[in-house]
Amino acid sequence: MPHVFHHRDRCVTAAGCVSTPEPAGELETDSLSPMEDGEEKERGIVGLQHDSKCQPGQPALMDSQNSIPETGQNGVAVGTEMEEKGMEEGDLKKEVEAEVKVELCQSGHGLQVSFIRGTDLFGYVGIEAVLDQMRRKTMKAGLEFNIMVVGQSGLGKSTLVNTLFKSKVSRKSCTSNYEEKISKTVKLHSVSHVIEEKGVRMKLTVIDTPGFGDQINNENCWEPIVKHVNEQYEKYLREELHINRKRRIPDSRVHCCIYFLPPTGHRLRQIDVEFMKRLGKIVSIVPVIAKADTLTIEERQEFKERIRQDLAANGIRVYPQKEYDEDPEDSILNDRIRESIPFAVVGTDKEHQVNGHKVLGRKTKWGIIEVENVEHCEFANLRDLLIRSHLQDLKDVTHNIHYETYRVRRLNESNVSFSELGLAPWPLENGTDDRGQSESHL
């Protein structure tokens, strides 16, 4: 409830507003001369100081007895209570109800910030309309998502990617006269597609790594992959440091790496440990158990538990990392995801009739394994993580964590001027001669 101070025939409220009450009865008061009015202003009657708790260094709120005399001219007593003449209890209640509740908090550099809740606003402002603006802008510009699949041949990498996006997006599916042969070295192939769904366009780039883990000697087979990831960071950094940089920098950085584990039922292999230890520091890794329909439910759970133990024992960081949780709500959701990692998945692009409905599944002699049925496999959980709930977070972690770490390290190492960075030639290739790129519109 605001304090009301009275002096002579003027009423001063805590908000600093000055009002002149109507004469009551036979009481007559003299109006203030200009000189007296100036004296009153000098005494600080108009306006109140802020609470000393909100602004350190400011004097505390002045006491009403010290700031305003207790009696005015002609011997009229002036009270500091709200029960003055002309103020009724009903008016007081209305004034209290109309008062806006504002929470004051102290921010950095001595700035005072107020937080006004939506229920305290006088009416509709329209701040929430910014969500529609952001949505329209995103729909016009579209978004980019780059996903890498890593694993030895025969684990169903291409099939799983096609199942994720329900289209022929893998290199194997969209390459004419494709021949399945084991590569002698690890080569990277990227295929780009523009997928549109309900007015939202997304440029999807799938990076395949044929030859990984297929050799007798797999020593350092992860080096071309690490090199490719770092090259994309370097490419983005150079574009960012140009004097006349593009309004929208093309983003070729790897936002997510799906690592396929063979369904052995034992533990992580040495190549799995070495790869994820190195890649987990520079990119978001999501491990999955490929062709999980070859394991029973009990075997699957035991295998998943042993893999989680190996991940913790070797200090391997997989997405989503606990230290990146922003609030308790994110922690609850991500804790459930971390309990399910690695996801036991099955991929297929064929549909079958089940109880009158078409479902994606693999048909066997014993029945149909429904890919999107959580009772059969965890493909739906993987899809929700990558696309429906954490796609933007994957991009944010890539930009704010992995790319930022690379940027700081590179700038500290090179210590070169912006002009040198802008004029330096950029190698377009990633160290392999057979890297293929193609683009399609879906």
UniProtKB/TrEMBL annotation:
InterPro entries: G_SEPTIN_dom, P-loop_NTPase, Septin. Residues 19-39 are annotated as: Disordered. Pfam families: Septin (PF00735). It is found in: Cytoplasm, Cytoskeleton. CDD domains: CDC_Septin (cd01850). Keywords: Cell cycle, Cell division, Cytoplasm, Cytoskeleton, GTP-binding, Nucleotide-binding. GO terms for molecular function: GTP binding. GO terms for biological process: cell division. It comes from the Eukaryota. GO terms for cellular component: cytoskeleton. Residues 141-413 form the Septin-type G domain. PROSITE patterns: G_SEPTIN (PS51719). Its main location: cytoplasm. Belongs to the TRAFAC class TrmE-Era-EngA-EngB-Septin-like GTPase superfamily. Septin GTPase family. This is Septin-type G domain-containing protein. It comes from Champsocephalus gunnari.
